[in-house]
Amino acid sequence: MNSSIHDGGNTSDFGIDTISFGGPLGAKLKAAREAGFTQVMLGARDVVGHPDGYEAAVEEVRASGLRVTGMQVMRDFEGLSGHLHDYKVDVAKSMLEVTAAVGAKVLLVCSSTSTHASTDLDAMARDLRKLAMLAVPLGVNVAYEALSWGRTVNVFPQAWDLVLRADMFNLGIGLDSFHAFAAKTPAEEIDQLDPDKIFLVQLADFMWQEIPSVEERITTARHFRVFPGEGVHSAQVADWVTRLHALGYRGDYSFEVFNDDYQQMPARAVAARARKSALWLGEEVLQRSVPLPNAMTLRRRAGA
């Protein structure tokens, strides 16, 4: 059955990341589509690691009919110098080409964790500006995300400051609920953002309240995330989505769920879990806080 969650009202803005599934790219795309998703975030490995080659992967993505939310992920780019900087620029050029080839409009870039990187904010901003300039001819936007274990930038207000410092029209911020919850970043900080410069929002939850050490934070992020509504931070996820909507954000949300258990489940079962999250956020959280015009009309008629 191909019951599209697009018919559920506010759910069409929610997509799933291929890193949430085990199995080959084709199975992931099929599971997402059959669960009713209309968009998917791609991991670069799913494309370049395709057994029939990169071109076959691109064709498979295009044939799926799914819109590509974005491509992830460029790591440890900003703050390097000399041969390390040149190396990362070459990597970035290749990743941007892959991003454009699959029709994605966003390349996700995570804040650097490298001990070889400068902590000078102006130098970091220059590098992000350069990356954004490389993306311009390809029609790609760059979303800069704060990793909660980043060396210099580890909370999203810092990422936002660096985006403003770099000052490029196609450079914006990427928000990740996991990192914000793990770092205990106040949700009120969202209110300071420009909704037009939020290029991507990634949503995930986890099963425990506290992550005291950096090591445990990394382990949880890479192995134990769950879909929104499945963990213990459901109220915070709902608050995030309603705040972003009130701010004026009308862009994409992607479920980025690294989970070893989900890698051992059929893709269809994982997609079904993600679908429940999309329905909860789109039909209950958003529709309750920001009623759709049709829903408002129905309520008026019911009360007449």
UniProtKB/TrEMBL annotation:
<protein>
    <submittedName>
        <fullName>Sugar phosphate isomerase/epimerase family protein</fullName>
    </submittedName>
</protein>
<feature type="domain" description="Xylose isomerase-like TIM barrel">
    <location>
        <begin position="29"/>
        <end position="277"/>
    </location>
</feature>
<dbReference type="InterPro" id="IPR013022">
    <property type="entry name" value="Xyl_isomerase-like_TIM-brl"/>
</dbReference>
<dbReference type="Pfam" id="PF01261">
    <property type="entry name" value="AP_endonuc_2"/>
</dbReference>
<keyword id="KW-0413">Isomerase</keyword>
<dbReference type="GO" id="GO:0016853">
    <property type="term" value="F:isomerase activity"/>
</dbReference>
<dbReference type="InterPro" id="IPR036237">
    <property type="entry name" value="Xyl_isomerase-like_sf"/>
</dbReference>
<dbReference type="InterPro" id="IPR050312">
    <property type="entry name" value="IolE/XylAMocC-like"/>
</dbReference>
